[in-house]
Write a structure and sequence with these properties.
Blueprint: H1 4-31, H2 36-56, E1 73-77, E2 82-86, H3 93-107, E3 121-130, E4 134-145, E5 154-158
C-alpha cells in the first residue's frame, strides 16, 4: 500500500508536469496553435490530479496496529467527538485496552470537527444475550486523548465490573 510520503513525491512530479503543460498552453496561445484549447484542458485536468494527490498525502490511509488488539467495528461516529465501537463479548480487559488504543490511534485525526472544549471519546460496547431473547448493550470502557504535554498519549477507562460478560 502506498504511504503518504509516496503520494507527496507523486504530487511533486505531477505538479511539475502540470506547470510544463500550463507553459506549453501559454506558448500555444502566443503562437496561435490549433490545439491551444486542448492544452488548456489538459493543464486544468492535471491541476485537479495534482490537488487530489496532495490531499492523499495528508495520511488518510495510515492504520496503526497495536499488539494484542482484536478487530472492532465502528457503529457510531458523529464526525466530531463521539465514536462508538463494538467488540466481541469474549474479550478480556487487557485486550480491550489494546483495542481501544488501536481505535484511538486510527480514529483520532486532526480533521475531526468539534466544538471548542469537546474531548474526542471512543467508547467500546458489546452485546450480552440474556435468556428470553433479551439483548443488552454493555459499555466496557472508553479512551480519550490526554492534554498536550502529558506523558501518556491517551487516558483509558475500563469498567471492570462488567466482566465476565454474559454470553
Amino acid at each position: 500500500m502506498l504511504s503518504p510520503d509516496d503520494f507527496l513525491v507523486a504530487t511533486q512530479w505531477v505538479g511539475l508536469g502540470t506547470l510544463a503543460l500550463a507553459l506549453l498552453a501559454v506558448l500555444a496561445f502566443f503562437l496561435k496553435w490549433g490545439i491551444r484549447f486542448r492544452l488548456v484542458g489538459a493543464a486544468g485536468f492535471s491541476a485537479v490530479l495534482t490537488v487530489g494527490l496532495l490531499g492523499l498525502s495528508f495520511e488518510p490511509f495510515s492504520r496503526i496496529a497495536v499488539p494484542g488488539a482484536m478487530p472492532y467495528t465502528t457503529v457510531y461516529d458523529s464526525g466530531a467527538s463521539q465514536i462508538v465501537i463494538t467488540v466481541p463479548n469474549t474479550m478480556s480487559p487487557e485486550t480491550l485496552d489494546a483495542t481501544l488504543r488501536q481505535a484511538a490511534s486510527n480514529l483520532f485525526k486532526p480533521y475531526r470537527l468539534g466544538l471548542p472544549g469537546q474531548i474526542a471519546t471512543v467508547r467500546a460496547r458489546t452485546i450480552a444475550h440474556e435468556p428470553g431473547g433479551i439483548s443488552n448493550l454493555i459499555y466496557l470502557g472508553q479512551i480519550q486523548p490526554n492534554p498536550k504535554g502529558s506523558e501518556e498519549a491517551f487516558h483509558v477507562q475500563i469498567d471492570r465490573s462488567n466482566w465476565p460478560i454474559p454470553s
